[in-house]
Design goal:
Structural class of chain B: mainly alpha
Keywords (chain A): ATP-binding, Nucleotide-binding, Transport
CATH class of the largest domain in chain A: Alpha Beta
Order of helices and strands of chain B: HHHHHHHHH
Structural class of chain A: alpha/beta
Largest sheet of chain B: none
CATH class of chain B: Mainly Alpha
Strand content of chain A: 15-25%
Radius of gyration of chain B: 20 Å
Helix content of chain A: 25-40%
Number of strands of chain B: 0
CATH topology of chain B: MetI-like fold
Shape of chain B: globular
Largest interface: A-B, 29 and 22 residues
Oligomer: heterodimer
Number of domains of chain A: 2
CATH superfamily of chain B: MetI-like
Number of domains of chain B: 1
EC number (chain A): 7.6.2.9
CATH architecture of chain B: Orthogonal Bundle
Number of strands of chain A: 17
Family (chain A): Belongs to the ABC transporter superfamily.
Protein name (chain A): ABC-type quaternary amine transporter
CATH superfamily of the largest domain in chain A: P-loop containing nucleotide triphosphate hydrolases
Helix content of chain B: over 70%
Strand order of the largest sheet of chain A: 6-7-8-3-9-10
CATH architecture of the largest domain in chain A: 3-Layer(aba) Sandwich
Organism (chain A): Marihabitans asiaticum
Radius of gyration of chain A: 25 Å
Largest sheet of chain A: 6 strands, mixed
Shape of chain A: globular
Number of helices of chain A: 14
Distance between the termini of chain B: 51 Å
Chain lengths: 386, 216
């Protein structure tokens, strides 16, 4: 657990970067610091591993005051990832990853072997280990940066805008893999971003900082979207808050049977007569391929001739994905699949909305609408729903 | 040409001395400059002093410095040590700025990453900053090496012999071949030094030459 207690940082010249910040980052969770430029989020991160010394206040990691430790030694025990990966251009990829183990005096052969394992873990072909960072793509460099941070198996990781230097498609991929990895490793992570969507996607807890280093709110992503503490947080969260909050609500939606046709060997088999203008096409194992207009069924020869715009919802997924599946489907029937991707039925937008309307808002009763801002030990609510 | 062929022994002996008198200060000067440059790079207040000081040093005429050395060092006036120390000072004068520039050229992300993952100042300098500063430092070293090869020839005037002797003697006695040998000798030596530094740079910076092995 990382605990910041009344931490303030004033830079020479009088700017207050961080103002009386108290915050707890629980063990094994991802705590996201998010806010606009100048809110002190990176300064806060760097105070944890003493790259910046606070003007006042204390920071502890597992009840150990960081200011009492040797700075370099402290940092070797904390994984650190920065934008672009921050790789050493003059070292090969595997040597980059092995940096911390070698600093710690570990055996060189073992360190390099471990580096190769880690490369594999973050999805880099270990065959690329002998290359130099400039020979990798931005996304690959970022992955190597994560591997390097993991090399000495530190319990704590600090990440400064780790995914912001890559294009949106790669970013989403990296975020998904990061969450998968965290699911396996359970590190205590503090991650800085200016992107509220990234914060909501990755954070178990989100600390929203305002300009001047004031803590505006600490909450779970769902709480943040449904109960922003003040107008600053509300503005920062942006639009579509109600819709985005549905992403955290899972509920049963009524499923309907959908009669389908099978696309096999370049032709629709058995194009049975159908009243509806749209027919769902599946493959032989029942995976949805797309929608076809019913009177053109006989002419379909390949899946890319189908209307592919509809998104798929998981049976146990969120209300947001169910609603989106219905809204994005040309037939307005949302395709719902199970974990293996097999069709289980379709859902209707009005029924999803009914579920939403009938749903009580349980968090109204459980937690106060306003929290955070004053700081203190209860800055984070460990009971916050995720 | 005849003169050159007839005096190959002398030319060889003088060339060897020239190599020592220009080369040893180059190495000593580099080592000293790395230390001074590191301090100047780290301590903001010393930076201006080091850069101005080293710049002023270079403006002292070489002959004056050669003559001054025995007084400061207590060496004999004909000792080659005078020349080596003086040439080392010139090298330092040129290289301190280069080393500071080289350290400035290290990408901030690499330096920060090194600090963040637990490099102390000394290990970071040797392991990260210095290797990344090699291209800039090598460029400065090439300038210093040419400058050394050229300035050392003035040492003939204080009785320390090297290829400059050929120039002085050839001029005094109006021997064209001797003048030519001295000039060519200096040029060839400068080119050899330059080639060696470039080779060293190349060996120290494999990451800058990865184009051909992209599929390796």
């Amino acid at each position: 657990m990382i605990r910041l207690d009344r931490v303030t940082k004033q830079f020479p010249g009088g700017t207050t970067a961080v103002d009386d910040l108290s915050l707890t980052a629980p063990t094994g969770k991802i705590t996201v610091l998010v806010g606009p430029s100048g809110c002190g989020k990176t300064t806060t991160l760097r105070m944890i591993n003493r790259m910046i010394e606070p003007t006042s206040g204390t920071i502890t990691i597992d009840d150990q005051d960081v200011s009492a430790l040797d700075a370099a030694e402290l940092r070797r025990g904390i994984g650190y990832v920065i934008q672009h990966g921050g790789l050493f251009p003059h070292r090969t990829v595997e040597r980059n990853v092995a940096s911390v183990p070698l600093l710690l005096g570990h055996d060189k052969k073992k360190s390099i072997a471990r580096a190769r394992e880690l490369l594999e873990l973050v999805g880099i072909d270990p065959g690329l280990g002998r290359r130099y960072p400039s020979q990798l793509s931005g996304g690959q460099q970022q992955r190597v940066g994560v591997a390097r941070a993991l090399a000495a198996d530190p319990p704590v990781m600090l990440m400064d805008e780790p995914f912001s230097a890559v294009d949106p498609v790669v970013r989403e991929q990296l975020q998904d893999e990061f969450l998968r990895l965290q699911g396996e490793l359970g590190k205590t992570i503090v991650l800085v971003t200016h992107d509220i969507d990234e914060a909501i996607k990755l954070g178990d807890h989100i600390a929203v900082l305002a300009v001047g280093g004031r803590l505006a709110q600490v909450a779970s992503p769902h709480q943040l979207l449904t109960h922003p503490a003040d107008t600053f947080v509300a503005d920062f969260l942006g639009k579509d808050r109600g819709y985005r909050a549905l992403g955290f609500d899972g509920a049963e939606v009524p499923l309907h049977h959908e009669s389908t046709v099978v696309l096999r060997d370049g032709a629709i088999t058995d194009p049975a007569p159908h009243d509806d203008p749209w027919t769902l096409v599946v493959d032989e194992s029942g995976h949805p391929l797309g929608w076809a207009s019913t009177d053109r069924l006989g002419q379909i020869t390949a899946s890319d001739e189908l209307a592919l715009g509809g998104t798929l919802a998981r049976r146990d997924g969120s209300l947001r994905s169910a609603l989106d599946a219905a809204l994005s489907s040309p037939s307005r029937r949302g395709v719902v699949v199970d974990d293996s991707g097999t069709l289980v039925g379709t859902c209707r937008a009005h029924q999803v909305l009914s579920v939403i309307e009938e749903q009580e808002r349980p968090e109204e009763e459980r937690v106060p609408a306003h929290e955070g801002g004053e700081g203190g030990d209860d800055g984070l609510d460990p009971r916050a729903p995720r | 040409m005849d003169w050159i062929l007839a005096h190959l022994d002398d030319i060889g002996r003088l060339t060897a001395r020239h190599v020592v008198l220009a080369g040893v200060p180059l190495v000593l000067g580099l080592v000293i400059s790395l230390g001074l440059g590191w301090v100047a790079h780290r301590v903001r207040g010393l930076r201006g002093i080091a850069l101005t000081g080293s710049g002023l040093l270079y403006t002292i005429p070489s002959l004056a410095l050669f003559v001054l050395m025995p007084l400061v060092l207590g060496t004999s006036i004909l000792s080659p040590i005078n020349v080596i120390v003086a040439m080392t000072l010139y090298t330092v004068a040129l290289l301190v700025r280069t080393v500071v520039d080289g350290l400035d050229s290290v990408p901030p992300a690499a330096r920060q990453a090194a600090t963040a993952i637990g490099y102390g100042p000394a290990r970071r300098f040797v392991g990260v900053e210095l290797p990344l500063a090699v291209p800039v430092i090598a460029a400065g070293l090439r300038v210093a090496s040419v400058s050394n090869v050229s300035i050392v020839s003035v040492a003939s005037l204080v009785g320390v012999s090297q290829l400059g002797d050929l120039l002085v003697d050839g001029f005094n006695r109006a021997i064209g071949g001797e003048l030519l040998a001295g000039t060519l000798g200096c040029i060839v030596l400068a080119l050899v030094f330059d080639a060696l530094i470039r080779l060293g740079e190349r060996l120290l910076t494999p990451w800058l030459h990865t184009g051909r092995e992209a599929s390796a």
